[in-house]
Amino acid sequence: MAATSATEIPKSPYSVLFSIPGTKAFCASGALARLPMSMMSLGIILALNHLYDNWTIAGVMSAAYVLSTAAVTPLYARLFDRFGQRKVGSVVLVVQIIAMLGFAFAALVRVPIPLLFALAVVMGLTQFSFGALVRTRWTYVLDRTGNGSLLNTAYALESAIDEIVFIFGPILAAFLAASVHPVSQLFVPTIACAIGGTVFFALRDTQPPVVREITVVSASSDDADVRLAVDGNTGNNGGANSVQQDKQQDKLTVAQLKSNDNRKKRNVLTYAGVIPLLMVFIVFNMSFTAFDTSMTAVMKALHLDSLLGVQLAMLAVGSCIGALVFGTRELKGSRWRHMITFLAIITVGFFIIHMCQGNLIMMGVFEILTGLTVSSVFASGNLVMKETVPEESLTEGLAWVSTAGTIGASFGSMTTGIMLDHFSPDISLMLPWIFVLASIPFALIGWAVTRRSVSLHS
């Protein structure tokens, strides 16, 4: 009898990810809940510039919102790590939606600028990083199901979803501001966050358990059970030596427990390479809001406001494609080296985009090409953080990466708004490549610090 052997078609790593029960639900709901990150900051700029015709006010208010978000994101992350995602999120989400609706209605009725600033700050103080929560769930689910090798794919997928959000968010915001009402783009992300967040926190099966440290106290030498064990062993031949060996083993075990489980939780920022990594994302993310704000001014000067969203989305389209490709590849070598290479490519890309100003088609083409490595920078940064901090601090560590990005975004929008009120859009469009170039030295420092730390502990 002839035996036939069928060759099994290898599964795509993405199909393996979504074959795990519960992953589709938390991935989709988390994506929907992230819509505000691509719409609120730009929505504030569009609304305020239309209502008051002032780029500085628009940029500074957007920066105030983003800085407020950055200030509290690590705090929320620590609460999520300590008490669990559902317990904290179900409460904070309600407060967040109320604050977002309050700001949108206040802008709609054109309250005084100082009050609107205060409401923007309050709204920012209610924001937390859904991206960090989703990535923490991926880490837990893949480890639980024995698919830890797919973590790179999962993180790349989330970077692609971030970019998809940034593809449709600006398009939707620009369309709503130009075609419906200058403030309507503030209500849509609020509704999306409410629906997506409610579904996300209702998913119990994929929620990571709360990791707690356990304090172990060794028994004293005069404990009754210890004396009984010692007396029983000394009655045997060679018992004294056995007891002495047991005592030495006990001392070693207690020392290990005291050095590992009984220590105070270490601050995430004290791990080698974390501070330089965060500086990379602060400076790097300044480029994106600088680009968005500058392109908004360019399109407005050309009287092509309705096409603004499409023009801004080109960068995100390229980044989404790059993220999906990055997720199917396991790059060799240091993730720091990968990040530096990607940053150098983006610097060149933004420089070419600036040189192509005036030719929207060529700008769009190079936006897509430049975007191919954008999400790879974010995925590499999140993986660096995952490899650096312990499991019980993972959400906080990932949230710090997100926080660094939001701080950079606030500085970028504020700086560009001021530049636009004093110079032309041509000058402000230089800022993106300058900011990315300035982030590379911090990545080099982080790589050097990490290598030195590894060599010292090896």
From TrEMBL:
InterPro entries recorded: MFS (IPR011701), MFS_dom (IPR020846), MFS_trans_sf (IPR036259)
Keyword line: Membrane, Transmembrane, Transmembrane helix
SUPFAM superfamilies: MFS general substrate transporter (SSF103473)
GO molecular function terms attached to this record: transmembrane transporter activity
Source taxon at top rank: Bacteria
Membrane topology recorded in Swiss-Prot or TrEMBL: Multi-pass membrane protein
GO cellular component entries: plasma membrane
Residues spanning the membrane: 55-76, 88-109, 115-134, 155-180, 186-203, 268-288, 308-327, 339-355, 361-385, 397-418, 430-449
Major subcellular location class: membrane
Domain Major facilitator superfamily (MFS) profile, first and last residues per copy: 273-458
Presence of keyword Metal-binding: no
Localization terms from the record: Cell membrane
UniProt key word Transmembrane: yes
Name by which UniProt lists this protein: MFS transporter
Organism: Bifidobacterium pseudocatenulatum
